[in-house]
Structures are given as C-alpha cells and as structure tokens.
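Appendix B, record 7
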Amino acid sequence: MSDVTITGGIVLKKSRKFSYYTNRHSYFLLQYHLVLVTKYRHPVIKDELETFLKDYTKKYFKERGVRITAFETMPDHIHILFDAPPQINLADFVNAYKSASSRHIRKKFEEKLKPYYWKPYFWSLSYFIGSVSDRSADAVEDYIKNQKE
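Structure tokens (predicted):
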C-alpha cells in the first residue's frame, strides 16, 4: 500500500507489519469496534433502509476523517470497525452520528418506521465501543464481515 492522504491532512502510511497514520506531530493507529442497536431491538434495518444507512454511514465517517475498515448491518444492529484520528472525541462523535443518522432515517422512512416507533427514536441510548489492537483487528474484521452467515 502506498501513502494515502485522507481528510484533514492525515496520511496513511505502511510500516513493516501494519498501516499507521501520521499528521504533523504524531504517528498513530487508533482502531475501534462500534456496535449500535435499534431502539427496543426492532428489526428495521433491511431493504432500502439498510442501503440508505450503509451509504449514509460511509459518507458521514469519511467527511470527518474517520476510515471504516469493516461494516455490516443486521436487522436490529450494526457493527463498524474504524480508524480514528487522535483528536476525535469518541463519545461526541458516536452521539453526533446516532443523532444525525436517526434524524435522516426517521425523515426518509417515516411510514416504514411508524409501526415500531411512536416517538422520534431509532437507536437505543446505549452502545458498545471497544478499542482494537493490531493483533486483534483481523479477528474483529472477520467477525463483522461474517455477521450475516
């Protein structure tokens, strides 16, 4: 892999064993596994809503300089493996993503979601986020990619 510049002047570089990022003052590899669950675990992430959510998520993360490594949806939850720069506040980032994606989904799929939600909800308030090391990243990526099997 050759060096690739991503948002905010961050450059993806290749070392001997793994890829890492660099900006003007640091080298870093910060990887996270995020799981978001729909409110009440209603199985609504399917068909065109699933396609919309995937497209929206890729765009949202890319615009903020966050690189998705693996991403898969299930009817009631999503898994995202991503690399983030050190200046990202994870709690703020995740909550902003949940709010924005929920707002867009509720607006676009209002009729489809009416039987499941009577208030403006989509995601559960809670979520899981865990750090991933360069040693465990492949296992987490395989787990996410094989969700539907």
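Remarks on this record: Strands lie at 4-6, 10-14, 19-22, 27-28, 31-38, 67-74, 77-83, 123-132. The mean pLDDT is 89.
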